[in-house]
Amino acid sequence: MASWESGSSSDALSICRGRRWRSASAALALLALVAVAFAAAPESAPGQDWSHYVRIAAWPLTANNAAAIVREAQQSNVFGIEVDNDVTGRYESFLDPRAKLAAIRRAAGEAHRAGNHAFVYIAGLECITANAGKTPHTLAKDHPDWLQRKRTGEPAVFGAGTAFWIAPGDEDVWISPYARAWRKIYMERVRQVAATGIDGIYVDIPYWMTHFEGWEDSWASFDDSTLAAFCERTGLDARQLPLGDFSDPGFRKWVQFRIDTLTDFMAEIDRTAKAVNPAIKTIPEIYPGIEEEAVRVGADVYSLYAVNDAVAHEYEFGGGDHLASSRTLLDWFRYQAGMQSFRSFARGKPTWILNYSWDGDEEIEPRESMQTLFMSEIMAGATPWDARGHVMSGSNDLATRREVFGWIADHEQTFFRPRQPMQPVGVYFSPATRNFFAAEHVRSYQGVLILLMQQHLEYQVVTPRTLAEFRGRLLVLPDVRMLDDNERRELQRFVEGSGKLILTGADATGLGARAEIKRYSQCPGKAYMDALERDFGAAVPDPQFLASLRPENARVSVSAARTLATQIATVDGKPHVFFANFTGLRPGRNARQTPEAGATVVLTGTHTGTWLPFLGTPERLTARPEAGATRFVLPPIEKGGVFWAD
């Protein structure tokens, strides 16, 4: 990572102009750092560890409450305890962490004695000084050169009212990851936290400041150290770029630089922690998912999964309502599409979900919303975490958490063992296209993926990292506009191996006309999303497009209402179908599903079948033999459940 002393804005511009000749080698150096970080994060081994099976809840940590925290966690079937005393995010403990480190050490010891695991919250690039007006020393007063800034020079300094967690009188600042002196101290704090024996370090929103009011279009940061690092890499002065113009090559470099910077920051946290404690987990928490927000804040889950052990998603799916009690049917399906994408990006690593079920809706019981939220997450293979309202700790209904977490613990192997594809339709997620054509690509991608879920066809999210491994016979590229040479070679190899491509919207493949490639100049995935937004119940896909997605001689065929989302995969070699029922849900009005009867699963060959309803017990199903196949009629599906065949 390039590091720079801070100076005036004119100094930074002079540096940029004077060091253009070094830009090529600097770019290669930074790219090499990122490549090393990616290479240093292998896929999870077949033997999964505790982080794949967490049932999370959170507590504020003090000097004396570690034993009480662990006791309460055990009583409500929590496995994976988040404790929060934020060493790096409070200026006082950033300078002197000894008391908080002692508390973290006690929390780790108590958790381990109970057979549990604990991880500790630390802030990423945010730091708060309490009672800033009454102390001569705050971070902003002591180190103004560390702060992120708008292009106009305005520092990222905020007070009460900007965000709910900033108390009256406090100073909240956001720091540049290129502030060399700060980063040195920060990594020392990471080493010290790792040395306590805690099982994980949970890094909260490591963002460029673009998420507070007035900063949304800032494309920060334009502090001197960041400007100098960008100049070293590209030879460009970021202050001269047309911000928000994705057609501009310079701005595209700025976008990629910002993503690479935060990925490298999280990779260094991981390396630093594991140098002290090789078993420790590093987990960034971010709210952007597959949508444009990832580009704006610079924290990209596709990149972060490669350099950390898990990602915790406070997922808002592109502006949809992330309260379970007030989601529309389309929100629920977009949520499923996001989580299935994360599971693909993770490549065997765990996906943690911090989302919120209920926050005072008068017409809805928290119990129903909590159950639906938990159900939707585990059916996607993600691990659950629900808190009271919009904070990280507590519960809207402790009895419900205890019940659901106990049931998940009893059936964790079913939900969290690796899921392997059989005969999937591949849907390509292109990070490069998302970075520069987010609206076009994401709508097309979501439309295709939701259609496959509703039609109960087997699908697999494919990415540049998994393209060479894809073994399905059909791959959809939904308005993919940017492909590199390696992706084009793999796509050519795919069609030459009798694979079929469906290209919707743009075509960046460079492949000529051939029988194995079907092109749609107008994207049917995007058209389907438009139809879902107009009237979810009346949306009808392009019949020709839908017919092209149906595989011949499918090993597993599912028939069910289109208000159920399904995923088909094998778990430990057995075909499974995971069902999430959203029938009858009405935002702010009803959180109890209408049971869906008559769903069927047909498998080639002779099988026995088992049905596990959400919060129920496994039951053997009556098999109905057909010519060369076995049909199973499922019991009425209430919230959800999973079928598997032996």
**Alpha-carbon distance between the termini?**
52 Å
Tertiary shape: globular
For the record, the count of structural domains works out to: 3
Task: Briefly note the CATH topology name of the largest domain.
Answer: TIM Barrel
The CATH architecture of the largest domain is Alpha-Beta Barrel
| CATH class assignment of the largest domain | Alpha Beta
Rg is 25 Å
Q: Let me know the largest β-sheet.
A: 8 strands, parallel
| Percent of sequence in beta strands | 15-25%
Query: How many helical elements?
Result: 20
Q: Can you give keywords for this protein?
A:
single chain; 646 residues; alpha/beta; TIM Barrel; Rossmann fold; Immunoglobulin-like; eight-stranded parallel beta sheet; six-stranded antiparallel beta sheet; 20 helices; 26 strands; disordered N terminus
Helices and strands in order, then pairings?
Blueprint: H1 9-18, H2 23-39, E1 57-60, H3 66-75, E2 81-84, H4 91-95, H5 98-113, E3 118-123, E4 126-129, H6 139-142, E5 157-158, E6 171-174, H7 180-194, E7 200-204, H8 224-234, H9 249-276, E8 281-286, H10 293-297, H11 301-304, E9 311-313, H12 329-346, E10 351-355, H13 366-379, E11 383-386, H14 398-410, H15 412-416, E12 419-420, E13 425-428, H16 431-436, H17 438-454, E14 459-462, E15 474-478, H18 485-496, E16 500-504, E17 517-520, H19 524-534, H20 543-549, E18 556-559, E19 564-571, E20 574-581, E21 600-604, E22 609-613, E23 619-621, E24 623-626, E25 629-633, E26 640-645
Parallel strand pairs: 1-2, 2-3, 3-7, 7-8, 8-9, 9-10, 10-11, 13-14, 13-15, 15-16, 16-17
Antiparallel strand pairs: 4-6, 5-6, 12-19, 18-21, 19-20, 20-26, 21-25, 22-23, 22-26, 24-25
Helix pairs in contact: 1-8, 2-8, 2-9, 3-5, 7-9, 12-17, 13-14, 17-19
